[in-house]
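Propose amino acids for all 634 sites.
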């Protein structure tokens, strides 16, 4: 009667006999067939895996299972009887009821233990099982837990009040029960002593209250840490009462102030009636409202503020007293060491463990061998089909003869027939041997096709490098000798590499053009790559040298002989611009000795001038000699 519906899961539930037996066992009119029996378990596992994984974002998918058997905790402790005798008492506490949902966490507290002890995690009441099921069930004990360090924790924290020893249990999503931790919890009351306010702080509070600051606001329950809820409520009620008292005090002081003002305004010798007094008071108030002395207003305001501050100070004192009286609860946790003896899964014997491990290794090796054989068979079959298709392509027919293609096609057909007849039972080694034999037969054909595919790209790269290298060499040779950074040996090495690469390319292409496409090519892509690498290495060396070369320093004009000759020819023009630094020596011509015998370079330049008489020559030589001497002195 407790079963609403029976849903079929699994392909075998389609069998009519199975459905008939299920209907009789359940006692229902029909079975639930609203889901795909073949895919239900797989789809459920997929959804559960996606929900547990962080890589997928799915709608909330919650699986709630139930513990089939109840689980309880059992422990024994000493108790004192009425006659002061001691006896052992066995206690049981239910941890998980039967059909309790999981995942779930539970905490059990042991209050009477002050020293090390042990407890047991067992199955609970199993009376709903038959005797045969109980016989198969075996031992009811799941785990034995021994705690160590309980007595030390009590000695260490003797000033604290014990709140028991708490054991934290967890039953995870798979229904596996585990003991996360065991801890000893202590608690004590700590009083908060407020520090006495200094004279400066009291003075500051008084001044702030005079200027409308008021006393400190009562702390609410949010600002109080580790306080009990009842204390918070009492504090909040006290704050409300204090606020009401403040309001009453303010209203009473205001009423008193109004009465005092009315008494001041009335004259002592008045004999008028009440109505006349009221009219006269209104008139006097209207007359005295403007010329009233401001000192009186200030004094009245100060009196009101002082009364308020006194009320606030009394309120704060009561709050402080209440705060001091409200102690805080401080909690301390000490972790307890534990030893577990898990009995629900018995340990395997050494021989059984070795045999199980060997069995797993054998299964792994068998799986790897199976994968390797399937991979070899697939490789052989795909090579046969791809090569048969390539034989009819234009680029393969261009580099092969009819006889070569017929031979390859015949071998491929034989291998295909062998695969259909005997290949399904062949070993991995035999399949690999067949594949290597066919590849060796087709190697030359594939090589010729592959080389012709690479030629255009490789030759274009070589031609481009030759052009750039030639242009670079011409530019390097055009650099003036004074600024040249490359040596003749370096430029000669580059020129030699360019010439050798060009001649090799032309000769190899000419030789390749003489050969038939079906023959082995002479022009190889790897040789082209080697030539490109050698020439590029030479060019890169010169480029790096130019990149890090330093410019040569320029020579000084006055340091060379040619410059001095230029100064000699230009002496008449620059004669007036030179300052007369040595006028005494010009007045004494006998002191200018070097001017009579100028350097040979100066003579050569002067003699080279045609159409000049001897007198002018002497004047120019003396002037040039004086100019060079002055330059040397400068």
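Proposal:
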């Amino acid at each position: 009667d407790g079963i609403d519906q029976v849903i079929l899961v699994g392909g075998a539930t389609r069998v009519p006999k199975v459905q008939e037996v299920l209907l009789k066992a359940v006692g229902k009119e029909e079975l639930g067939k609203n889901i795909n029996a073949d895919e239900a378990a797989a789809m459920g596992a997929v959804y559960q895996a996606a929900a547990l994984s962080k890589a997928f974002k799915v709608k909330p998918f919650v699986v709630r299972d139930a513990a089939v058997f109840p689980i309880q905790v059992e422990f024994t402790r000493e108790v004192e009887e009425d006659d002061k005798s001691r006896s052992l008492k066995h206690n049981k506490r239910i941890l998980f009821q039967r059909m309790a949902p999981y995942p779930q966490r539970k905490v059990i507290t042991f209050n009477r233990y002050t020293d090390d002890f042990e407890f047991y995690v067992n199955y609970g009441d199993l009376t709903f099982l038959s005797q045969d099921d109980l016989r198969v069930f075996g031992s009811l004990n799941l785990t034995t837990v021994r705690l160590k360090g309980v007595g030390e924790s009590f000695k260490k924290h003797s000033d604290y009040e014990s709140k028991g020893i708490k054991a934290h249990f967890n039953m995870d999503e798979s229904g596996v029960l585990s003991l996360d931790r065991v801890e000893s919890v202590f608690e004590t009351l700590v009083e908060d002593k407020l520090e006495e306010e200094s004279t400066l702080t009291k003075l500051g509070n008084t001044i702030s209250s005079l200027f409308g600051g008021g006393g400190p606001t009562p702390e609410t329950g949010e600002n109080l840490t580790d306080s009990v809820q009842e204390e918070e409520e009492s504090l909040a009620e006290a704050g409300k009462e204090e606020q009401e008292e403040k309001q009453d005090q303010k209203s009473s002081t205001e009423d008193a102030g109004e009465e005092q003002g009315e008494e001041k305004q009335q004259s002592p010798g008045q004999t008028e009636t009440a109505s006349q007094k009221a009219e006269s008071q209104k008139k006097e108030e209207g007359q005295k409202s403007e010329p009233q002395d401001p000192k009186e207003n200030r004094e009245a305001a100060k009196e009101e503020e002082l009364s308020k501050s006194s009320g606030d100070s009394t309120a704060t004192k009561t709050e402080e007293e209440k705060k001091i009286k409200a102690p805080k609860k401080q909690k301390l946790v000490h972790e307890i060491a534990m030893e577990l003896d898990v009995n629900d899964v018995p340990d395997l014997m050494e021989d059984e463990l070795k045999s199980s491990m060997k069995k797993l290794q054998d299964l792994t090796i068998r799986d790897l061998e199976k994968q390797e054989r399937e991979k070899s068979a697939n490789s052989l079959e795909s090579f046969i089909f791809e090569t048969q298709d390539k034989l009819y392509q234009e680029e393969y027919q261009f580099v092969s003869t009819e006889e070569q293609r017929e031979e390859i096609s015949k071998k491929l057909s034989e291998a295909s027939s062998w695969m259909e007849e005997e290949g399904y039972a062949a070993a991995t080694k035999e399949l690999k041997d067949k594949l290597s034999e066919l590849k060796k037969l087709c190697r030359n054909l594939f090589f010729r096709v592959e080389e012709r595919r690479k030629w255009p790209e490789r030759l274009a790269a070589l031609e481009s490098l030759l052009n750039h290298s030639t242009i670079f060499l011409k530019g390097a040779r055009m650099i003036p000798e004074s600024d040249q950074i490359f040596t003749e040996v370096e430029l000669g090495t580059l020129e030699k590499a360019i010439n050798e690469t060009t001649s090799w390319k032309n000769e190899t292409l000419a030789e390749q053009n003489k050969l038939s496409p079906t023959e082995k090519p002479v022009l190889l892509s790897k040789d082209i790559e080697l030539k490109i690498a050698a020439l590029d290495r030479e060019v890169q060396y010169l480029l790096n040298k130019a990149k890090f070369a330093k410019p040569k320093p320029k020579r000084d004009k006055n340091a060379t002989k040619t410059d001095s000759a230029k100064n000699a020819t230009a002496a008449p023009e620059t004669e007036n611009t030179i300052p007369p630094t040595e006028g005494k020596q010009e007045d004494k011509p006998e002191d200018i000795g070097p001017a009579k015998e100028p350097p040979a370079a100066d003579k050569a330049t002067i003699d080279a001038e045609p159409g000049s008489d001897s007198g002018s020559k002497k004047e120019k030589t003396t002037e040039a000699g004086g100019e060079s001497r002055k330059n040397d002195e400068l």
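The first strand starts at residue 65 and ends at 66. The chain is about 55% helix and 15% strand.
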